[in-house]
Amino acid sequence: MSDSSSMSSGIAARYGTAVFELARDAKTIDAVETDLDALDAALNSSADLRDLIRSPLYSRESQGKAIDAIAAKMGLGDLVGNTLRLMASKRRLFVLPQLITALRGLIAEEKGEVTADVRSAKELSAAQRDALAAKLKASIGKDVKINTTVDESLIGGLVVKVGSKMIDTSIRSKLAALQNTMKEVG
């Protein structure tokens, strides 16, 4: 399993580097970033799209036609649309999630940003996200882009991951620590 995962990461990294360099040369990094956000949202919300990129049952031709329609409907730029068409013709659409991650990393590095993955028990307001980004920027020294997800099992609090560092202030983890402490006493 790790071999196919590392192969997928390698393929995604090569496509990501190529797209990034083309976008940088054409000065369209912001447009590519917008397209990536739209693609990521579509992948997260559409089981049919996830099936299209992963299933070997779809032919190259049917994947290509579907990608053409999706790119047109979403209004994707030429660079991202053409990359998706190329990936469909080479049967490489299965690496699209890794490509999005790789490209976001390259774009963030170019802009001097870091990405923080934040899980919260409920949706954060814009003011809360801004305050968190400012606090993280003061701590890290770089601009911080925040990706948020909601995980109701946290009960309350946040789990923030920036690079290899993780801060867990969730009530779930505090209850687990309390439970462990009580086991040691009793």
Report on this model:
This protein is α+β, with helices and mostly antiparallel strands. It folds into 2 domains: 2-109, N-terminal domain of the delta subunit of the F1F0-ATP synthase (Peroxidase, domain 1); 114-185, no CATH class. 66% of the residues lie in helices and 13% in strands. The protein has a 4-stranded mixed beta sheet. The radius of gyration is 20 Å and the shape is globular. The model has no long low-confidence stretch (mean pLDDT 92).
Structural class: alpha+beta
Strand content: 5-15%
Distance between the termini: 42 Å
State the major sheet. Answer: 4 strands, mixed
Helix content: 55-70%
Radius of gyration: 20 Å
Shape: globular
Q: Please give the CATH architecture of the largest domain.
A: Orthogonal Bundle
Low-confidence blocks of residues = none
The CATH H-level superfamily of the largest domain is N-terminal domain of the delta subunit of the F1F0-ATP synthase
Q: Which strand order do you get reading across the main beta sheet?
A: 2-1-3-4
The first-level CATH class name of the largest domain: Mainly Alpha
User: Could you tell me the mean pLDDT?
Assistant: 92
**Helix count from the secondary structure assignment:** 8
DSSP E strands, number? 4
List the domain count as a whole number.
2
Task: Summarize the helix and strand pattern as letters.
Answer: HHHHHHEHEEEH
What is the CATH topology descriptor of the largest domain? Answer: Peroxidase, domain 1
